[in-house]
UniProtKB/TrEMBL annotation:
It comes from Aquila chrysaetos chrysaetos. This is Sarcoglycan zeta. The gene is SGCZ. Keywords: Cell membrane, Cytoplasm, Cytoskeleton, Disulfide bond, Glycoprotein, Membrane, Signal-anchor, Transmembrane, Transmembrane helix. It is a single-pass type II membrane protein. Its main location: membrane. The keyword Transmembrane applies. InterPro entries: Sarcoglycan, Sarcoglycan_gamma/delta/zeta.
């Protein structure tokens, strides 16, 4: 290489380049871009299907905000409660024939105030409502004793205590009081009605005391005070008592006639 050629080549290398720099774009192109769009579209379709299935399940199961929760089953519905050890502490079963609750204590409370309306456990059953109303035609049947300080019928209704096949007993150590403030008091029996006081007396206090269907005693044949056949009709009688306590009527006279007509005591 001659000196001129060397100098010319050196000058060409030292001259600044006037060419523009090349830029390389960064991104996803080709089949990668198509795969990305496919997966994004597939994810969108999956989200739409899940949303539609959720709405369908809520519609079928009636899971709505304004409607109550409804649980349906062809056989029964059972709700269990367990403690932290997994032991069963309570169970509610709703079946076709019965509703069963298995727990230590069952309570029904009022929506306002939380007052206990009904509670039941192994020892007792408590009804805390202001009024217990039995609307059945046969009434309420109790196998054992009933303790209550007050028994009252509905307004304008009669109160009836009845034992169809056995006896009815009312006992109280300090007395039994039966009061009819605005009506009659009736005691009816088929056989005998006994009024007995072991230590006190039987007191009848009224303006008029009537004893109906009392037998009328007749004078004995040996009595000299027997009325004649021409005597007027007897309208006044004397109330007599037999030794056994039986009452009877005797035609009144100037004196007592109970002894003369006491033959009726022999028939009792």
């Amino acid at each position: 290489m001659t000196r001129e050629q060397y100098i010319l080549a050196t000058q060409q290398n030292s001259l600044p380049r006037t060419e523009h720099p090349q830029f390389y774009p960064v991104g996803i192109y080709g089949w990668r871009k198509r795969c990305l769009y496919f997966f994004v579209l597939l994810l969108l379709v999956t989200m739409i299907v899940n949303l539609a299935m959720t709405v369908w399940i809520l519609k079928v199961m009636n899971f709505t905000v304004d409607s109550p929760l409804v649980l349906q089953s062809d056989r029964n519905v059972t709700v269990n409660a367990r403690n932290h050890m997994g032991q069963l502490t309570g169970q509610l079963t709703v079946g076709a024939d019965a509703v069963e609750a298995l727990c230590k204590r069952f309570e029904v409370r009022a929506s306002e105030g939380g007052k206990v309306l009904f509670s039941a456990d192994e020892d007792e059953i408590v009804i805390g409502a202001d009024r217990l109303k039995v609307t059945g035609t046969e009434g309420a049947v109790f196998g054992h004793s009933v303790e209550t300080p007050h028994i009252r019928a509905e307004p304008s209704q009669d109160l009836k205590l009845e034992s169809p096949t056995r006896s009815l007993v009312m006992e109280a150590p300090r007395g039994v009081q039966v009061n009819a403030a605005a009506g009659d008091l009736k005691a009816t029996c088929r056989k005998e009605l006994h009024l007995q006081s072991t230590e006190g007396e039987i007191f009848l206090n009224a303006d008029t005391i009537r004893l109906g269907n009392l037998p009328v005693g007749s004078f004995s044949s040996s009595s000299s005070s027997s009325p004649s056949s021409s005597a007027p009709r007897q309208t006044i009688y004397e109330l007599c008592v037999c030794p056994n306590g039986k009452l009877y009527l005797s035609p009144a006279g100037a004196g007592s006639t109970c002894q003369s007509s006491s033959n009726i005591c022999l028939w009792s």
